[in-house]
Amino acid sequence: MDILITNDDGINAPGLAALERAACGMGRVVVVAPMREQSMCGHRVTTGSPIRMEQRAQDRWAVDGTPADCVRLALRALDLRPAWVLSGVNAGGNMGQDIVISGTVAAAREAAYHGLRAMALSHYLIRDLAVDWLRVGEWAGELMRELSGAALADGEFWNVNLPHHPPGTLGLPERLPCHPARSPLNVSYAPTEHGHVYTASYAERPQDPGSDVEVCFSGRVAVSRLRIG
């Protein structure tokens, strides 16, 4: 089967490489990813100007556009019809209020609009703790195999957030189904001579009971079934 991989951290991101390793034994892997980081671009698409595509290798394309652009180009310009569309693995969580601004999630959502099986994967980050990207790839592969057998209704897709544990040997943590957190991030704006500067502590965000934030922050894998619209 064909597997399309994209992200919003850019084609050279370690999370994308981890996802490629996870998928390489499951079928033909085609990478169509942004040339550069497109974090927090949401579901923005490019319609008023040409979108440059560069073929970097066989089945590997870099796009001067957003993650949603990448999915559209893969389907409409490259004529792919993948069995899976995987987006990530994002360096940073995409939970609760993050979902609507995440380019990672937008790529999976775009695929779901086309009736394709899709999953966004993100890795929560704890400051000053290294990420074991080799282990992330192993976890992603296990999750793909697990969720391949789970039925999705029309318009549904997966949003998965991995917890941050110290590097080293560790099997895939407990997986829990959960809903996106409803509480907003605690943000503040510091006034400066140039305007107000956004500040926030991601680690101190509210942990709504049963939410993706509570599950992921407790060291488990947050698995949410989302719907388009």
Chain-wise SSE layout:
Elements: E1 2-6, H1 14-23, E2 28-34, E3 53-57, E4 60-63, H2 67-76, E5 84-91, H3 103-113, E6 118-123, H4 133-148, E7 156-162, E8 175-177, E9 187-192, E10 195-200, H5 212-217, E11 221-227
Parallel strand pairs: 1-2, 1-5, 2-4, 5-6, 6-7, 8-11
Antiparallel strand pairs: 3-4, 7-11, 9-10
Helix pairs in contact: 1-4, 2-3
Could you describe the 3D structure shown?
It is a single chain. This protein has 229 residues and is of the alpha/beta class. The protein has a single domain (2-227), classed as Survival protein SurE-like phosphatase/nucleotidase (Stationary-phase Survival Protein Sure Homolog, Chain: A, 3-Layer(aba) Sandwich), CATH 3.40.1210. The chain is built from 5 helices and 11 strands, in the order βαβββαβαβαββββαβ. The protein has helices at 14-23, 67-76, 103-113, 133-148, 212-217, and strands at 2-6, 28-34, 53-57, 60-63, 84-91, 118-123, 156-162, 175-177, 187-192, 195-200, 221-227. α1 links the parallel β1 (2-6) and β2 (28-34). The longest helix is centred in the middle third of the chain and has 16 residues, at 133-148. The mean pLDDT is 96.
What is the tally of beta strands? 11
What is the name of the CATH topology? Stationary-phase Survival Protein Sure Homolog, Chain: A
Q: State the share of residues found in helices, binned by percent.
A: 10-25%
State the CATH class: Alpha Beta
Mean pLDDT, as a whole number? 96
Quickly count the domains.
1
Largest sheet: 9 strands, mixed
Strand content: 25-35%
Radius of gyration: 17 Å
Q: Report the span from N to C terminus.
A: 28 Å
- Could you state the order of secondary-structure elements as H and E? EHEEEHEHEHEEEEHE
The helix tally amounts to 5
